[in-house]
């Protein structure tokens, strides 16, 4: 598990580590905040496309090959960013970093499923919980690590640190990860685990159409405060072509027929995306409100948000120890609605204790939803497609993140206010109730129906 946990931490830590280096980067390259924001958006876009794409490759070529290739790509991206002479190359390095770090999580899920089928034993829930904890924990320490590197080595250290981290993951992976099944002339040989043969085309056109559709859709979502309506036409056209091609292809990148039959998996994606829309909305919106409306410094606002990260980590561990899936997801939905209700009561004179409590309350759904939905995807995905399915789960999460950032711009405008925070809170209450209904009415989440396909 060591290389899988190290690799799975690289994407979330890079998503948050850059935050404390943006000002220094802007000063060095003489660009403003609107330009440096591309360093965040570029990686989100690349990761949203890269997660299911890498998962597809892991299912077809083998998870160990994809994991090691991803680690090498991260090394290249780290060097490119650390040595970038122009801002454009720095953005390119973030795109490459998003692609490279996208490999580890879906490869880990595919590898765990393969090992489970090889041994005939279900993957322990605590193992899946460790993957969630690695992501949550690394995202939480990212800003602190980024600030430390920026102060001691300069902002280029935020990129350069990826080289030793990826090399450690690569060496550990080569040493400890099980070898992939052999490949014949026509593709991968059937695994000795009893899986169906996974040979066939990688469907590069399908991957390209998916990437183009998702990219145009995300560009539209990024500016809900000033909608770019001309982007809707190409988005719809690309989506239509994607659907047409996937239905015609014998081994499609997105198995739409499988998704149509596997409604439980689609509901899991919907739950995950809606949950993280609220979580990211609070993560970004609450911290901004603490600074602009409450008068806290960036450092103190970060300290106030720490209970949220701590609660998320604790609930992730607790969720990993539960046997069922419905109970933790139900608690997550209730906590999401309750957290929104608490935010509705906050104002610029709210005492510190209440602010800490509000943040901690939102850590509960963050931890429980992460482990619960991950376990649901693992149980509901086809045996030979768990890598791509896990990647699509992360895509749903990134869509929620981008929608949340657009929502914040829409309700806050130029400055965070009590009214804007209360609008985000109201959405949290509403979506919490929706998620509760989606969870309670989903029969696939019952203990008997939700156990892993290996059991």
TrEMBL record:
InterPro entries: MFS (IPR011701), MFS_dom (IPR020846), MFS_trans_sf (IPR036259). GO terms for biological process: response to antibiotic. Gene3D superfamilies: MFS general substrate transporter like domains (1.20.1250.20), Multidrug resistance protein D (1.20.1720.10). GO terms for cellular component: plasma membrane. It is a multi-pass membrane protein. Residues 1-444 form the Major facilitator superfamily (MFS) profile domain. Keywords: Antibiotic resistance, Membrane, Transmembrane, Transmembrane helix, Transport. SUPFAM superfamilies: MFS general substrate transporter. One of its GO terms (molecular function) is transmembrane transporter activity. It is found in: Cell membrane. The chain crosses the membrane at residues 66-85, 91-112, 133-151, 157-177, 205-223, 229-247, 268-287, 299-320, 327-346, 424-441. This is MFS transporter. It comes from Streptomyces kasugaensis.
């Amino acid at each position: 598990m060591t290389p899988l946990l190290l690799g799975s931490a690289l994407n979330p830590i890079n998503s948050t580590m850059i935050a404390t280096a943006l000002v220094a980067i802007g000063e060095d390259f003489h660009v403003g905040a609107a330009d440096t924001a591309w360093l965040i958006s570029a990686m989100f876009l690349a990761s949203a496309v890269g997660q299911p794409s890498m998962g597809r490759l892991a299912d077809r070529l083998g998870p160990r090959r994809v994991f090691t290739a991803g680690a090498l790509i991260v090394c290249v991206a780290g060097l490119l960013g650390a040595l970038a002479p122009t801002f454009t190359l720095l953005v390119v390095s973030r795109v490459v970093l998003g692609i490279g770090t996208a490999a580890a999580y879906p490869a880990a899920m595919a590898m765990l499923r393969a090992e489970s089928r090889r041994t005939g034993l279900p993957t322990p829930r605590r193992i899946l919980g460790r993957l969630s904890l690695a992501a949550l924990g690394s995202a939480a320490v990212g800003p602190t690590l980024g600030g430390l590197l920026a102060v001691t080595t300069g902002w280029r250290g935020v990129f350069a640190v990826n080289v030793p981290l990826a090399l450690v993951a690569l060496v550990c992976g080569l040493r400890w990860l099980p070898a992939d099944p052999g490949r014949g002339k026509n593709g991968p040989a059937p695994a000795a685990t009893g899986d169906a043969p996974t040979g066939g085309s990688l469907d590069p056109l399908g991957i390209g159409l998916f990437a183009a559709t998702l990219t145009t859709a995300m560009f539209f979502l990024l500016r809900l405060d000033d909608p770019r309506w001309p982007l809707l036409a190409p988005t719809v056209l690309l989506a239509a072509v994607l659907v047409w091609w996937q239905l015609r292809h014998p081994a499609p990148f997105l198995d739409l027929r499988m998704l149509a039959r596997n409604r439980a998996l689609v509901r899991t994606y919907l739950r995950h995306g809606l949950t993280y829309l609220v979580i990211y909305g609070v993560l970004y919106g609450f911290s901004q409100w603490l600074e602009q409306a409450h008068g806290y410094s960036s450092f103190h606002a970060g300290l106030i948000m720490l209970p949220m990260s701590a609660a998320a980590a604790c609930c992730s561990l607790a969720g990993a120890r539960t046997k069922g899936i419905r109970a933790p997801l139900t608690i997550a939905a209730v906590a999401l609605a309750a957290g929104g209700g608490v935010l509705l009561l906050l104002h610029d004179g709210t005492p510190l204790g209440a602010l800490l409590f509000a943040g901690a309350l939102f850590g509960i759904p963050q931890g429980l939803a992460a482990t619960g939905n991950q376990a649901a995807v693992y149980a509901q995905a086809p045996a030979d497609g768990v890598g791509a399915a896990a990647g699509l789960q992360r895509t749903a999460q990134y869509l929620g993140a981008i929608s949340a950032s657009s929502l914040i711009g829409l309700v806050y405008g130029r400055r965070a206010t009590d009214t804007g925070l209360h609008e985000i809170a109201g959405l949290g209450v509403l979506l919490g109730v929706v998620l509760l209904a989606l969870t309670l009415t989903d029969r696939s989440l019952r203990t008997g129906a939700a156990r892993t396909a290996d059991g």
